Amino acid sequence: MDYVKESYELAKKRYAQYGIDTDAALEQLKSIAISMHCWQGDDVIGFENPDGELTGGIQTTGNYPGKATTPDELRADIEKAFSMIPGKHRINLHAIYGDFEGNVDRDKVEVKHFQKWIDWAKKNGIGLDFNPTCFSHPNSSDGLTISHPNPVIREYWIRHCKACRKIAAHMGKELGTPTVTNFWFPDGMKDNPVNKLGFRKLMMEGLDEVFSEEYPEEYTLDAVESKVFGIGAESYTVGSNEFCMGYAVSRKKLVCLDAGHFHPTEVISDKLSAVSLFTGDILLHVSRPVRWDSDHVIILDDELKNIAIELVRGGLLSRTHIGLDYFDASINRIAAWVIGMRNMQKALLNALLEPTAMLQKYEADLDYTSRLAMTEEIKTLPMGAVWDYFCQINNVPVGDAWLAEVRAYEKDVLSKR
Ligand code: RNT
Ligand code: ZN
After folding, report:
1. Active site (annotated) includes residue 113
2. From the CA of 13, how far away is ligand 2's center (Å)?
3. Are 63 and 329 in contact (CB under 8 A)?
4. How far apart are CA 368 and CA 209, in angstroms?
5. What are residue 174's phi and psi, to 5 degrees?
6. Which of 55, 241, 313, 369 holds its CA 20 to 30 A away from the CA of 389?
7. Residue 288 forms beta bridges with which residues?
8. Cβ(304)–Cβ(350) under 8 Å?
9. Per-residue pLDDT, 238
10. Is 321 a known active-site residue?
11. In this structure, what DSSP letter does residue 178 have?
12. Distance 261 CA to ligand 2 centre (A)
């Protein structure tokens, strides 16, 4: 495809007019590993039990055929998706995705249940991230886990979280890249609680117990994820934003910002510059809330672009772990991964191609006219040509060519499941 190279050469000249080196931007883009969430591949069900049901105030809708029903199928689907996404990335696993071979309760999960994933990751040269699964379980059916008033239930989840950290540390050690372990709890209440403080105190103490063992940062990093509400937990969320922020800052943990976990007019792109002043590394769950925390596939919308822009402008890329978190069961699940991953990369490319110094100079001079004029002008620079070239030099389908590959895989593999 000669036009790809030709278009790139023209685009390169155009960007050079603003002092932007497109080759350097592509080098940098290639170095950014995004953590692709395994759970888009099977609608957050996992492999504990084939009839598993998703609970915890989160939901998938749709019944598109062909979802992965075994770890081997999921790994094959991920490999297929990765073949259409430029660069090297990571896989984000949940504790319910082990190779269990029989019934294994959550507080009994061990490294051996994830050894196949580790070997597979090693073979593919990718890193793994991890999550305890504190939902979709009889011990979470009251809507409370680590903050449950019953110590037996609380301790069960503490044991699960500890078991997960042990697995994560092993993953990170084996793979030579720290496994980010994210702690999210669905704990909350449908109606107004009368002891908000009490449950939060239990969660704080539970987390302190979970983190009582130290693991080297080269092996695993812990993050805590806040939320504003969930289905069935409309009135109160124990792990609110203030709770998680306070916890993470005081315990030197990572803050996980999920794009769907705030009030509708709040955006995480606006939070990064503030949070980054008080925290170390940051974990992102990039998602797309449509009217609520609906976890739609991420599209190249203003907020996605703004998230990437804030990371680049703030020099935050080196300490931000970008993870995706959405689940759509109404479309081809491999396409859902490819669309979201490629969009995250396009947003990053868009940010890396921004003449930030020029824009910031206008602002520092209080020349808001030029700032507005130029931020609008650069929106129509030929980023598409740069993106196509990036796909070409990284040997993945250019433009919509990936869709035909997904259709072929659907016909040959998914439709036979
Ligand atoms: C739920 C949180 C959480 C989950 C995943 C599956 O609202 O966003 O991160 O989506 O752990
Ligand atoms: Zn999330």
Report:
1. no
2. 40
3. yes
4. 51
5. -65, -35
6. 313
7. 296
8. no
9. 98
10. no
11. P
12. 8
Among 293, 328, 354, 388, the one annotated catalytic:
293
Taking the domains of the chain in order of start, what are their residue ranges?
Answer: 32-354
CB-count exposure of residue 353 (10 Å: 0-12, 13-18, 19+) = buried
Q: How many angstroms separate the CA atoms of 187 and 313, rounded?
A: 35
Cα(15) to centroid of ligand 2, in Å?
36
Cα distance between residue 45 and residue 70, in whole Å: 11
Cα(360)–Cα(313) distance, rounded to whole angstroms?
9
Task: Show Cβ contacts of residue 406 under 8 Å, excluding neighbours closer than 6 positions.
Answer: 80, 84, 332, 334, 335, 338
> Which residue puts its alpha carbon closest to atom 2 of ligand 1?
184
377 as an active site residue: the answer is no
List average pLDDT for each run of 10 residues in the chain, which is 417 residues long: 92 98 98 98 94 92 97 98 98 98 96 98 98 98 98 98 98 98 98 98 98 98 97 97 98 98 97 97 98 97 98 98 98 98 99 98 98 98 98 98 98 97
Measured between alpha carbons, how far apart are the two ends of the chain, in Å? Answer: 35
Ligand 1, pocket residues at CB < 6 Å: 39, 44, 58, 131, 184, 225, 227, 258, 285, 293, 325
Q: Locate the ligand 1 atom nearest the alpha carbon of residue 57 and give its number.
A: 7
Find out whether 36 and 416 touch, Cβ atoms under 8 Å.
no
Please tell me which residue in 43, 129, 325, 410 is annotated as part of the active site: 325
Taking alpha carbons only, the member of 134, 152, 132 closest to residue 143 is: 134
Q: Say what the pLDDT of residue 51 is.
A: 87
> Which fold is adopted by the domain 32-354?
TIM Barrel (3.20.20)
Ligand lying nearest the CA atom of residue 40: 1
pLDDT for 50 equals 80
Q: How far is CA 395 from the centre of its chain?
A: 24
Which is nearest to 104 in space by CA: 150, 71, 58, 126?
71
DSSP for 377-417 reads: HGGGS-HHHHHHHHHHHTTS--TTHHHHHHHHHHHHTGGG-
